[in-house]
Amino acid sequence: MASLLLCFLVSALALISSPPPALSQSLPPIVNGLSFSFYKSSCPELDSIVRKFLKQQFKKDIGLAAALLRVHFHDCFVQGCDGSVLLDGSASGPSEKNAPPNLTLRPEAFKAINDIRALIDSKCGSVVSCADVLALAARDSVSLSGGPRYKVPLGRRDGLTFATRNATVASLPAPTFNVSAILPVLARINLDAADLVALSGGHTIGRGHCASFSNRIFPSRDPTMDQTFFNNLRGTCPSSNSTNTTVLDIRSPNVFDNKYYVDLMNRQGLFTSDEDLYMDSRTKQTVLDFALNQSLFFEKSSFSMVKMGQLSVLTGGNGEIRTNCSARNGGSISMLPVDEEGETAAY
């Protein structure tokens, strides 16, 4: 009997962790002006250019995948997916990069976007926006790390402005936020609790800074945190101002899979914003569903990524196609940041 039970458990775990079958992608509505064939004529090699470059880069630095995914999130959550997070500051004020939530975005990710853009331009000319490059880079960061390869509608234009520090901070939920604090921020951009759980799965890859979870280990252990996990974190972060980092997913830190949700079930989520997904009744069941069914997670994650990737996009004659992703065409001196209400900010 014991051996039969063991065989059953092994078989069940194999089913849970095995690669999912191919899924027919369920998609949210596609924004007018975007399409899956937008560059079919003007840049038919676009997909292969992006994917080939990133495959080479990830062999040298797999951490770049998480870095690119995070930049895409931080772009879309602040005034929409317009590439504004890629802009450097100007005489009119500091850029989104300089706002506190973005100070830990990796410079290598910004360089990779510019490098991809240069490769595209050499093949196709300046026809592909930086915002679209970022969306494709995020998609391939997911798939090349073991996750689903979802379809990305293209046709975004690049924004002419960047958001102020206050608007950037207000638009990006902090890792110390719980579900009750995060949901109203997401509701403003038409994302719901299901999107929150699915998009948080991006934390299955990447690293977190001690400062982002010091509230959970100083002065004492957050009672929702596993004791052994706490002990290990205190070893990594010996003081509340430590500059060290640790992996976001202790089970498979470089693989895009559903183990992040298994972490949460075992009270081994790194941030408050992670672990509270399992503690809050509005999100707990979805965490459980994803932990037990990787195919379901991949399907819902793809849906929410496409939904997020269309937030307040610029299309048609709006915006521009930047020749340099870090600066507006014609130079950055004339750029004026946009405040939280969408009005031009004065400095």
Briefly, what is this?
With 347 residues, the chain is an all-alpha fold.
Number of strands: 2
Strand order of the largest sheet: 1-2
Number of helices: 14
Helical/strand content category = mainly alpha
Measured by DSSP, the beta-strand proportion falls in: under 5%
Query: What would you say the CATH architecture of the domain at 45-206 and 248-309 is?
Result: Orthogonal Bundle
Query: What is the helix fraction of residues, given as a range?
Result: 40-55%
Taking all residues together, what is the mean pLDDT? 90
Encode the helix/strand succession as letters: HHHHHHHHEHHEHHHH
For the termini, the CA-CA separation is: 75 Å
The CATH C-level name of the domain at 45-206 and 248-309 is Mainly Alpha
Largest sheet: 2 strands, antiparallel
* Overall form: globular
Q: Return Rg in Å.
A: 20 Å
| CATH fold-level name of the domain at 45-206 and 248-309 | Peroxidase, domain 1
Spans where pLDDT lies below 50 across 5 or more residues: 1-23, 332-347
Active site: 74
InterPro entries: Haem_peroxidase, Haem_peroxidase_sf, Peroxidase_pln, Peroxidases_AS, Peroxidases_heam-ligand_BS, Secretory_peroxidase
Binding site for substrate: 173
GO biological process, one term: response to oxidative stress
